[in-house]
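Q: A reviewer asked whether we had any structural model of the full assembly, not just the individual parts. We don't, so I'm hoping you can provide one. Inputs are below.
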Amino acid sequence: MLVTLISGLATGSIYTIVAVGYNLTWLTAKVVNFAFAMFIVTGMYFTVWMYSLGFHPLAIFAVLIIVGALIALIEYYVAIRPIANRGDHAELVTTVGVTTALQGIILLFNTSEAIRVPFFAGDTLIDVFGGGRTSVASIVLIIVAVVIAIGTHLWSTRTRSGLAALAQSEDRNAALILGVRPARTAFLVFVLSGVLGFAVAPFVGPVTFAIVTIGAVLAIKGFVVLAIGGLGSQFGALIGGLLLGVIEAFVIRFADATYQNPVVYLVFILFLLLRPQGLFGANRERTV
Amino acid sequence: MSVGNILEVNGVTSGYGDLTVIRDVSFTVAPASITAVLGRNGAGKTTTLNTVAGLLPIKSGSVVFDAAPITSSPAYARRRLGFGYVQENKRVFKQRSVEENLILGMYRLGLKRAEERSRIEESYERFPILGEKRKQVAGFLSGGQQQMLAIAQALLNRPKLLMLDEPSTGLAPSIVSEVMETVRSLRDDEGLAVLLIEQAVETALGVADSVVVLDVGRVIHTAPADEPGLREVIENAYMAAPADD
Amino acid sequence: MTRTETAIANRRRLPGWILPAGWIVVTAFLLLAPSLGLVNASAMRQIILIALLCLIVSGLNLSFGFAGELSFAAPAMYAAGAYATGWISINLINDLAVSLVVSALVGLLLGLVSGIPGLRIGGWMLATSSFFLVLLVPDVVNMAGASLGGHTGLPGIPRPELFGIELGDLGLYAAVVVITSIWFIFYRNLALSRTGRALTVLRQSPVLASSVGISVYGLKLKAYSLAALPASIAGTLFAYLDGFIAPEFFGLNFAIAILAAAVLGGKRSIYGVFIGAAIMQLGPMRTSAFGDYAFIAYGLLLVIVGVLLPGGIAGGYHELKVRLGRRKGRETVRRESNRVARVEFPPMPGKRLTVSGISKSFGGNAALTDVSFEAKPGEVVALIGPNGSGKTTMLNIVSGFYRADSGSIVLGDDDVTGKATHRIAQMGVVRTFQTPIVPEMTVSEAVATARFGKDRASIVETMMRLPRYRQAVRRDEEKTSAVLAMTGLADVANADATSLPLGTRRVLELARAIAADPSLVLLDEIASGLDEEEITALAEVVHAIRAAGGTVLLVEHNFALVRSLADRIVVLSQGSLVAQGTPDEIASHPEVLRHYLGAPTGIDSDDTIVDEVDASEHFITGDGK
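A: Here is a predicted structure for the entire assembly that you could use as a starting point for your response.
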């Protein structure tokens, strides 16, 4: 039982991180970056590659941070900023485009088969109370997800820069006249989300596999987490993601893997119908 | 244009996108004075203030602040120069708390923590009700309280010029008096220059030193507030009958 | 793509028979081509695949291009139709017609059920739930066990029969061509129809849509469900094509390819669908040599087209034509001042408005407190008061955009308190907006949108251009031209509504209001931002509405205008009713002057403690004012 729970929390951690990434850019620029999950996947492939070249973990992180910032920067200027105020859901199309393009780039250098991602602290397994074994990597990932969710929550609620970022998203002009620079904020946070997505890859990879197709699946499940936790709430992303992962794990364990997605879909639909703002989402004012 | 004016607006034409709302608007604001901008709805009063604040691009003309031209300076840079702008409709950040709003009022001013703290306490002294509600989310304050918060927020950089857009809108007369008292004392005690838009003519005349009257985007009259016959000029601008039959 | 769509409407009208004739010619040509030896078996297969892709892409266009909601569900609908057909033709009855009908119903049902939860929120949530459906295909197929063949696929689907006759390759080809052709006639009819324009309004401004009687949620749901239809029908044809289907044909990559085809061709274009589908099917991306680069190509295409060419190839083509046309010196019509000699409207079914005890608070702030008044047919009642007095809030409550906390609103004999916005509009309440909301279409089309909520033809009637639809269109045209003539807009009837200056836009909104045969006309500061001449022209129109028996409630700042127009004036201040009476009574009312022009500072003549009130006067229009 416990091992199922841990496994669920570990997968859920990935969903949490995706939702956190979505929230970051949503809170500061009202943009949800569908390609964020693909950042993580691309990062995984980079990790595998750098491992095979014998890079030291710290070097790997350094490279990931730089690459993540670069790719986010490119995406921002090519696919996000030009359509910023168009209003016809143009970024839905372009971010899906970026996801696909990244998928293609990965496939240029890899096959479509799943690749194992080694954990930098070793692939030891530990015995779990109640039977079964889990990996150290899983535990570490859970901790990482909690840290990220709480960290971003604290950033946006307790720091000056976070406060300014939220304010300019709420009312751009009011922020401008106080000296906040909305355009720069949106840009910086976007790049930050790229760094986050790539840097977290060495933690996520060992728990799943590096496989191109999970990019879209993670992206979708990240949205389910937003529906459960509430768009804009990092805390909601944490609870929602972990909850989702645990539900999935128990369905797989006690029913069948075939029922995993249908159950998740049902949960998703239930939330959309019964509690559209999610568990912790803001009760938005009635804007017609 | 006399030397020493805090603000000089020279022949400014501006508007939204292709639409030109104000044309060739010129006026000045002297230090330690209150200038009221009057005119009926749609005359271009808010557009004028937004242009001075840098929120709208200037199509022609220039703006000089404290003897330095700021026409091409971006909006976010103007706060540091000494602007305070209380926009209409109590535009505080309604999803943030009172104290967070005040912190934002000192964004990137380079103040030390101790200085920031003391300025916040000053705000609470000036508006005690804000001190009582410092942790409250601003969206749940009453209109009058939100207005006070907006003013407190604008004052946190110790501005040289405070612009207020219809601060008395929707406020009870007693609160309006308080607000105007505060504005007056800022002028008298701290030498603040104030640019004030008011639809409530009497309220404005009661506190202003000079008056700029706008109609259909142009300045039709500038005068000291005690000029005889001023009220009639203003009332005509407000109640002007369109050519009827 | 406003100008381009208007350009489409404005282009020289071709003789009415050209389009149907062309359609028949092309269809006939395709049907005969194999017998004439023009296409061989492999070309026939390509044409079939292109046709199927066209069907699916047209569905995507319906929900994304027209209703404005991006949906990735097409492969799931495709799969639903294919598997339904596969199962039925193996186990029950193998008939093309039966299969088509069943898969059409399955598609519609699936569209409806999957659309309901997501459409309330729309945007990303809808896109995600539609993407999710595609994820579910293999799982659902597996859950159905052996009957659907599981993940290895369902083989053994027989050749289709039609009324007992087995259709060979040629027969299936012919069926595909005919079905695609017929669907596209319906699709085109829907796109270029009142419903199509209603979808445009819906897409650009849900606020405007509700105010003219369109149910935003209802119409979106209809479009979304309908979008499933061509996809599921295509699924039937696909199942028969190879006699074998498997979950892997209906995956996420296919969803992205469909989106790419739609975006490339033009998400609102009819003929662009063919271009996009053909390029996708025939283009280099489908060859195996290209395989490795396919994803990058799709991705780049989505980004580049999404950013640079939002209307796709078709949109770009029209944009080009517009630019060239303009360079030849065709200017947008500049409206000359043309006051109609005497404005007169046919009788209007004005109803009595009774507002009783309305109170409304936002957060902790009371915007309105116990306000009551009446407006009778053939009367203009003006609502005045300083900023923050609650007049716009009142207007929003009467038109259904806000719900009052207490009190009632009665229109004629009907209690409309708390009713949905579009329902209230359907009862004849029309309104204008502080910033005119003007959709991207011609002026006469914009005015005609007023009638959409009242004079309705069903989707089927629209697609098949049945008599009910034609009559509705005719009534639209009659009413619209009459109203345009009376409001002096006749000369700009075919101009792009968004190119009009502010004064003309206000007249347009008035014309739209009148075209709806309103029982109550709500005017929101129509004079603001206008010069004297324009105000006078507007005043004449309002006079004429009153003379025709309409009920008018007017929110206005311009006191002189109010004096000349209103029969009665209601004065609000800080949410309460301060005075009401005739203009003369109000003008000499001492309280009014004080509230309107503001109390002199220092004099607090109120002994009672007045609640601090704040009214959120900023009604949020589509422009985010």
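A: Points you may want to mention in the reply: The radius of gyration of chain C is 29 Å. Residues 329-337, 599-625 of chain C have pLDDT under 50 and may be disordered.
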